[in-house]
Amino acid sequence: MSTKKYRARIWNPEIKKKIDLGYYDSEEERDLVEAQAKLDLSQHRTPKVIEDRSRGGELFVTFAERTLLDRKRRVTLSTWTNYQAMLRKWVIPTFGQMKLRDITPRDIDRWFNEVLPQGSPSNGQRYSILSMVMIRAVKMQEIPSNPCIVEGVAATKTKRRPTWSWSDFQVLYEAAATDQERALLWALAGSGCRIGEALALNVEDIDMPNSEIVVSHHMVRTQRVQGTKAHPEQVRYLTIPPQAPEALQTHLNGSGRAMDQPVFVNSRGGRLGYDRARRTFDSIRSSRGLDDLVIHDLRHLSLTAFGKTGATLAEIMQRGGHSDMRTALRYQHASRDRDRALVQRMAEMIP
């Protein structure tokens, strides 16, 4: 779709940063420009930087990087990290060296249908990242219109998840092979916390006498970050049913772990990572034929059960750590029996 370009850059020791010298059609041309720039620096001259400052002349890669930095102020760290990973893996290789004004609807259509893996449920997100960059380019008056016009992508819906019961959870729990696996299952299902929040727990965050988990950190890849996914400064105190502290106590007994050490650990004694936790979970569920069950379903199971107790929307939002009311509403399911009971109470109030 586009001819490969070669980026010229040199290190400027005076300002202690690299200088971009533009993109060139061949390695020889790039090397020549870099050599001339180094000579200029050695003779205290400012290197010449080739840059297209006309409207839409900026390369997609540099404009996209600035777009993500602008977006970083308005989304969670984990969301921004996901944006960055998708952009670098799926979008930059195709469009990175193209000028904004040269990207056409035909280019994007070919990318979506020929480059992205066919049928992948993540294609909508990859497309939305590209569209986000191009929408900003329109707002900045770099291009006249957004070339992202592939039909039906924005309307793509995530496939409806199966509904799981506590009986399914019991099957899963009985299939777990170690105390740690059983403790992690109960930490998730008992509190409704996110997997990243559970993996960030330290021993001091488990209050056994009061049957409570304190969620004050979450994991972003391998980094333990303060706050929760939706709120950087949030701390949630989550009461858990009796089975959960029992499983956690059994897991921690005799471990000799200090209060500031992780609750869930890997084979080397370090903090258990998401990939390892997910693979272990997948192995447990597959051993019992629950192949459609994913680790996030335990959070859904927990918050749905909490919602059925008659909890208010505000209480569900607080327990789940939600900032979006629409997300919390998913867990406020009303059973038919409860609906009948409420209507019966209403009828008793009618004269």
Automatic annotation (TrEMBL):
This protein's record includes keyword DNA-binding: yes
Residue ranges of domain Core-binding (CB) in the record: 58-138
Keywords: DNA integration, DNA recombination, DNA-binding
Transmembrane segments: none
Location of the Tyr recombinase domain: 159-344
Keyword NADP on entry: no
InterPro entries in the record: CB (IPR044068), DNA_brk_join_enz (IPR011010), Integrase-like_cat_sf (IPR013762), Integrase_catalytic (IPR002104), Integrase_recombinase_N (IPR010998), Integrase_SAM-like_N (IPR004107), Tyrosine_recombinase_XerCD (IPR050090)
PROSITE patterns tied to this protein: CB, TYR_RECOMBINASE
CDD domains listed in its UniProt record: DNA_BRE_C (cd00397)
UniProt record similarity statement: Belongs to the 'phage' integrase family.
Protein name: Tyrosine-type recombinase/integrase
